[in-house]
């Protein structure tokens, strides 16, 4: 964002926000005091500093500098709103379980994902949408998905990896996970519509964490346009599914959209509008494909330089393959034998959590650790504050799968490993992500060997982590004659 644009933004919003922020600085007599820190410039606040640190891969240091300066609770301004940053296990527990806080993404996220996306829903609305998702992600359904995911993974590797001397991992992983989620939960067949929707989702996050001002040539404008195109496609799918339900060609169990359309109240009236279904579908697609693709990309990145971990994974998967016939698909019971691979995934998530942090909104004046969080303020928590805390995870920069021998570090206090969030809002698709990760890695490590093309092994966040140049690798197909 250039300097003239910043001046324009400040000129537009300065009178109103200066009044609001000045008033927000004054706690009521006798009330708990506001946390230490500064709200910074109107509109801008500390947003550009955080975004710059994320893109430079110094965001963990940026957060730690604030903690060193102000303590585990501090105030700042992010994306146009006064914010309280909370860090540490106790803070995470407060964020995940407090009834005084509600989910609310920054305005930029809501504009792009829709006002009724599942990340922002509360109360009965959230329960309805989450319940519908849970219906398709319950164990009985997940067992059925393993074979279909197996087929999608093998087709993807045959078409996009086999016979190539080099590939770029991240876009391929994004397309794989998008195909899996769109096929399983939306019954969207391969073809031009799915290709166009996938292309829009690739650009959807360009301006998710940005100052929410819709001006030409900004990342926020690009994201809004990609979102509008994607929403039109999904709205068309909703109309088609509605017609199929009316003709008896689909049922509530056909796919997620059919289930959402079939939700009714006691009088038989539909519970959700078309807009709510589109917003819910957008959030599900984003949550279902982006985070898993990042996890698998960074697993590939780590394994390129860790031959011992790779060898242990190959041994685990060779043992599973020995008991299966040629071409036989993986089944649910096979996944239970992939314990070491999942520990590799969890340690990857600890070191590079796809979601750097998230937001809540105070729905009433509340307190934490003796500080006031005023009603309407944002609350910001970050994963790195506990993931990289040496008091919780010994030698936190070291890759150590033994931390997760018992599914979670035995020495870590609750709410320390938060790659999937926590509390009632813990990721509903966590088990689905586990399945697609394990199936993909089973075929990937048995079939290919690779090395990194870039000497500089780094990544940036925008806001999701992305390795340098999308992680180009030199590829050797071990199954080739």
From TrEMBL:
GO terms of molecular function: heme binding; iron ion binding; monooxygenase activity; oxidoreductase activity, acting on paired donors, with incorporation or reduction of molecular oxygen
Cofactors (names): heme
Name of a matching Pfam family: p450
InterPro entries named among the record's database cross-references: Cyt_P450, Cyt_P450_CS, Cyt_P450_E_grp-I, Cyt_P450_sf
Keyword Zinc: no
Keyword entries, A-Z: Heme, Iron, Metal-binding, Monooxygenase, Oxidoreductase, Signal
Gene Ontology annotations of biological process type: sterol metabolic process
Binding annotation for heme: 427
SUPFAM superfamilies for this protein: Cytochrome P450
CDD domains: CYP90-like (cd11043)
Signal peptide residue numbers: 1-24
Family named by the database record: Belongs to the cytochrome P450 family.
Full protein name: Cytochrome P450 716B1-like
Protein species of origin: Panicum miliaceum (Proso millet)
């Amino acid at each position: 964002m250039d300097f003239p644009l910043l001046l324009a933004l400040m000129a537009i919003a300065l009178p109103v926000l200066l009044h609001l922020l000045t008033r927000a600085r004054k706690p009521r007599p006798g009330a708990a005091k506001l946390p230490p820190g500064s709200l910074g410039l109107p509109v801008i606040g500390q947003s550009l500093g955080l975004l710059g640190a994320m893109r430079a891969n110094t965001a963990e240091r940026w957060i730690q500098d604030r903690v060193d300066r102000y303590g585990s609770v501090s105030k700042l301004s992010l994306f146009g709103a006064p914010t309280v940053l909370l860090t540490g296990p106790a803070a995470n527990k407060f964020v995940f379980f407090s009834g005084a806080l509600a989910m609310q993404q920054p305005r930029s996220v809501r504009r792009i994902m829709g006002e009724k996306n599942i990340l922002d829903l509360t109360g009965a609305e959230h329960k309805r949408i989450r319940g519908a998702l849970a219906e398709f992600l319950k164990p009985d359904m997940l067992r059925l998905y393993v074979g279909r995911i197996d087929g999608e993974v093998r087709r993807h590797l045959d078409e996009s990896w086999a016979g190539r001397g080099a590939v770029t991992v991240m876009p391929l992983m994004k397309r794989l996970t998008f195909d899996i989620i769109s096929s399983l939960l939306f019954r969207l067949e391969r073809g031009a519509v799915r290709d166009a929707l996938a292309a829009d989702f690739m650009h959807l996050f360009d301006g998710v964490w940005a100052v929410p001002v819709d001006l030409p040539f900004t990342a926020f404008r690009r994201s809004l346009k990609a979102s509008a195109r994607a929403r039109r496609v999904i709205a068309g799918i909703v109309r088609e599914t509605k017609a199929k339900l009316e003709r008896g060609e689909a049922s509530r169990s056909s796919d997620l959209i059919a289930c959402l359309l079939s939700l009714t109240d006691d009088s038989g009236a539909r519970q959700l509008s078309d807009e709510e279904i589109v917003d819910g579908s957008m959030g599900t697609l984003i949550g279902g494909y982006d985070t898993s693709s990042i996890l698998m990309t960074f697993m590939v990145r780590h394994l390129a330089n860790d031959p011992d971990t790779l060898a242990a994974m190959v041994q685990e998967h060779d043992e599973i393959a020995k008991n299966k016939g040629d071409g036989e698909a993986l089944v649910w019971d096979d996944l239970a034998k992939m314990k070491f691979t999942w520990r590799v995934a969890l340690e990857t998530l600890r070191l590079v959590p796809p979601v750097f942090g998230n937001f809540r909104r105070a729905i009433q004046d509340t307190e934490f650790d003796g500080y006031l969080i005023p009603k309407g303020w944002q609350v910001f928590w970050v994963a790195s504050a506990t993931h990289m805390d040496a008091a919780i995870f010994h030698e936190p920069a070291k890759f150590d799968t033994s931390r997760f021998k018992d599914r979670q570090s035995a020495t870590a206090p609750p709410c320390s490993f938060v790659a999937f969030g926590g509390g009632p809002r813990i990721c509903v698709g966590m088990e689905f992500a586990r399945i697609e990760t394990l199936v993909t890695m089973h075929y990937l490590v048995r079939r290919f060997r690779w090395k990194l093309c870039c000497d500089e092994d780094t990544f940036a966040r925008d806001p999701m982590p992305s390795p340098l140049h999308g992680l180009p690798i030199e590829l050797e197909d071990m199954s080739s004659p």
